[in-house]
């Protein structure tokens, strides 16, 4: 997967030597551009307000706003956050706040290079998924065509006549599945696996252990700081994407985009 842009990074540390060393390490990697170096949490949060940032490297203990307080004020720009600190006892709190990584000082250059590699992979994945979702968003939602095979879905409360293109999402609910068709849910006594074996279209994809979606209806993908993601479907339905399936979803959306004329 090729990189089409430089990833923009911000560094915040109240120690001049640490700021300089961290910047030097980051700039050894030509995939990243350090666009701001801040000496406090306050200036970091101020700079992040309205700025397009991909990555923020944050110290924990800083005067004024500490790293966690600064992060709380950066929710609007949604960067990946790496805490870089001399204190190991904040790691659990950092990951609870959605940190991408936690690097302790003194910084091991090899360890930091590994972090940059993982950051690049995640950011490329996010770019590809967002681009692919944008392509889907530009497409009209398919409507029923007479040539499509119609089937009868034996629901618990009622039978429904449908075609595969009308299925938006399938959700596992124990021994049942809830099938969302044209904005309405139908409960069927069948497992997720057995129901999906009846589907022929390649546009169906499992994105979570409990959800299979028709990717034609994807309108947007949002990444969470925890590492998970959500798909926004036409009609306002939101489906979680698990960490296990995140890369596959991003790759499929990217490959679909690359096939566009």
Automatic annotation (TrEMBL):
TM regions (residue ranges): none
Keyword hit for DNA-binding: yes
InterPro entries named in the record: CheY-like_superfamily, LytTR_DNA-bd_dom, Sig_transdc_resp-reg_receiver, WalR-like
Keyword Phosphoprotein: yes
Domain Response regulatory: 8-120
SUPFAM superfamilies listed in its UniProt record: CheY-like
GO biological process, one term: regulation of DNA-templated transcription
Sorted UniProt keywords: DNA-binding, Phosphoprotein
Modified residues (4-aspartylphosphate): 59
Domain HTH LytTR-type: 157-255
GO molecular-function term, one example from the UniProt record: transcription cis-regulatory region binding
PROSITE patterns: HTH_LYTTR, RESPONSE_REGULATORY
GO cellular component: cytosol; protein-DNA complex
Protein name: Transcriptional regulatory protein YehT
Native organism: Botrimarina hoheduenensis
Highest classification ranks of the organism: Bacteria, Pseudomonadati, Planctomycetota, Planctomycetia, Pirellulales
